[in-house]
Design goal:
Number of helices: 9
Shape: globular
Helix content: 25-40%
Distance between the termini: 25 Å
Strand order of the largest sheet: 3-9-2-1-12-16-17-15
Number of strands: 17
């Protein structure tokens, strides 16, 4: 049987399902639950590349770094993303390998520390909006902005935080390695947290350098799916289906959606929250516009039913 190829993006809810359960063991157990559904996809003759979010975990790494700065150097943001790729990749590959072994499937799972190229001219760098790290008092925020060149902003009246750019992903640097691993029968965890953001050296030449930014993981997953020529993009989230007018009396759940319909809903600007569902719809549109045939947005435990056309929001060109 010919194997099909899927890229599956799993969100923070797949790793931290409860604010009261954030320990490493809690995250392993949450990953194991999600991986039971990923394993079902693999056993149904799909080759799978996993992409994961890392928002809370990068925040933890930054906080540890800030607390220890009186004794140790602070960790740059691009290295924090790399740290999270290794740690979360380990949790995912270990729990998925265990689940596959339980099912009698002899396939190896590997994690690729992945760089994703962005443009230094991306407009996002001129208007940073993504809050990261700990809350600060206004005087500390001003001091760090002056001393370290940070952009800071008040965050929902809870304090001040550093904000960074979220540029559009342009290229998966390790795409050849990821493709070769998939071709070799491996399940691959890659582009974690949207990838380590890198850009060409400002001085010119071929060198890439890490930049202080974060990349949306769903947009990175769509890019990975396009570059791999994937048959399917799955974006796992906290709801079973996408809705119009979510949380209002006019709420309507979406089942089958065409490219043009999704594009129209996104352009309307009232249906999908900018920091929540909107990037997921944008990622689906990117994938379909780049040649992808179909995409699904659903929660992890409905993945198999969504593939069977029974639930989830299913997108097509």
């Amino acid at each position: 049987m010919t194997r099909r190829r899927a890229v599956v993006a799993i969100g923070g809810n797949s790793l931290i399902s409860d604010p009261a359960r954030q320990s490493v063991q809690d995250q392993y157990e949450a990953a194991a639950e999600t991986n039971r559904h990923i394993a079902a996809l693999i056993t149904a003759d799909w080759d799978v590349a996993l992409v994961h979010g890392n928002g809370p975990q990068v925040g933890f790494i930054l906080r540890r770094s800030e607390l220890a700065r009186h004794e140790l150097h602070e960790v740059p943001l691009d290295v924090c993303v790399a740290d999270s790729q290794g740690a979360i990749g380990y949790l995912l590959q270990a729990s998925l390998a265990n689940e596959l072994a339980r099912r009698g499937v002899t396939r190896s799972v590997v994690t690729v520390v992945t760089q994703v190229e962005v443009s230094r001219d991306d407009p996002a760098f001129a208007s940073p909006t993504k809050p990261i790290g700990s809350f600060m008092q206004a005087d500390e925020a001003r001091r760090r902005a002056a001393e370290e060149g940070w952009v800071v902003a008040s965050d929902a009246n809870r304090g001040w935080r550093r904000v960074v750019a979220s540029p559009y992903p342009r290229r998966i640097v390790e795409i050849d390695a990821i493709r070769s691993l998939l071709d070799g029968g491996f399940v691959v965890v890659s582009a974690g947290g949207g990838g380590i953001p890198v850009a060409p050296d400002a001085a010119g030449g071929p060198a890439l350098r890490g930049v202080p930014a974060v990349i949306d993981k769903d947009l990175a997953a769509a890019l990975l799916a396009r570059e791999l020529g994937a048959d399917l993009l799955v974006i796992s989230t906290g709801v079973e289906k996408v809705a119009l007018h979510f949380g209002t009396p006019e709420q309507v759940w979406l089942d089958e959606v065409t490219f043009d319909e999704a594009k129209s809903y996104l352009a309307d600007g009232t249906h999908f929250a900018p920091g929540s569902m909107a990037p997921k719809i944008e990622a689906v549109l990117d994938f379909l516009a780049g040649g992808g045939e179909r995409a699904i947005i659903t929660n992890p435990h409905n993945l198999s039913r969504a593939l069977a056309g029974e639930t989830g929001t299913r997108f097509r060109r």
